[in-house]
Amino acid sequence: MNTASLARRTARCAIILGLGALLSTAALANAEEREWPRGHYPLPEYGNVIGEVYTVTVDEGQTLIDIARRHNVGYEEIRMANPDISLWAPFEGTEVTIPAQHILPDAPREGIVINLSELRLYYYSEPGVVETYPISVGRDGFATPVGITRTTVKVKDPAWSPPRSMREEAAARGDPPPAVVPPGPDNPLGRHAILLGLPSYLIHGTNMPDGVGMRASRGCIRMFPEDIESLYERVPSGTKVNILDQPFKAGWSEDGVLYAQSFPQLEENQGAFEPILNAIEVVTKAFGEEHPPVDYKRLRSLVENPDGLVVSLLRAAEPEPEPQPTPQSDGLYQELVDQDRLYQELAATRLR
């Protein structure tokens, strides 16, 4: 797909959006007037990019973890978006990036969708609305399983029975835990739990909210206390839960721009697939039958240096002629040229 084709695609998108606006002026006006609660976004009718990146400044005594929780962001998200800022002692007045823009996972827009690599939960709670919240998932050795299940029983102020593996580990240290931890501030399940059809797996709160947004559990899905409380009150029993792992996502914005998001690959899945090839397949799928005018150097950098930020992948114009390599840089230069040629050939192959 050349620049002219992309322009035509963008123009078609604009025309469709314009007609939609004329046909649903009242609905759009109501949406604009609506005050969206924490984590709620209007579901885009065209494309699959929601939210936006913005910045805030550090107040006296704040940590990045405090800021993250206030702005519906998890530990790893805030860390990757602000790699040069101290998590626990940022200077007052420092500008902090809030990565509140997301590409919806490539999955049916229904029920709850959990993207493990992204450490984020999506809930399609009502027509035209999607909610998203940071989560913790199973750490290496206790991986949260991929698959489709459903919510079952909801429990308020649950008691917690430490699993056998934890009791054995604690006993080996000479510090055996109690058989049952009653509700209260020491209960790691927090005050609300939603059981899943997968035996022994729950979506629940936590008494250690600073760890939300990292791989920290023994397989369960942990949420900030205020987020699980909100879901607990509204998620019906029997709601579909789709647990998947998409470390690289691509999607279109409503104004016709192709974006991508890349996250660190889960340790247990490293080697299961080639990250670059997976990214190319995701991008070519987003384009359908058209050949994508993708900036492959940027795509490669995004995969090799994942930071969770939403980045445009489209080339703005036809590439300029490649400069001739100098003798000193011939080897490295040729390697980069060959890699870019390979990526483009692979992308073209997957469209045949």
Automatic annotation (TrEMBL):
One Pfam family here: YkuD
Pathway connected to this protein: Cell wall biogenesis; peptidoglycan biosynthesis
Active site: H204, C220
Record-linked PROSITE patterns: LD_TPASE, LYSM
Segments for region (Disordered): 157-179
Signal peptide start-end: 1-29
CDD domains: LysM (cd00118), YkuD_like (cd16913)
Limits of the L,D-TPase catalytic domain: 110-244
Domain LysM: 54-98
Keywords, sorted A to Z: Cell shape, Cell wall biogenesis/degradation, Glycosyltransferase, Hydrolase, Peptidoglycan synthesis, Signal, Transferase
Family: Belongs to the YkuD family.
Protein name: L,D-transpeptidase family protein
Origin species: Billgrantia campisalis
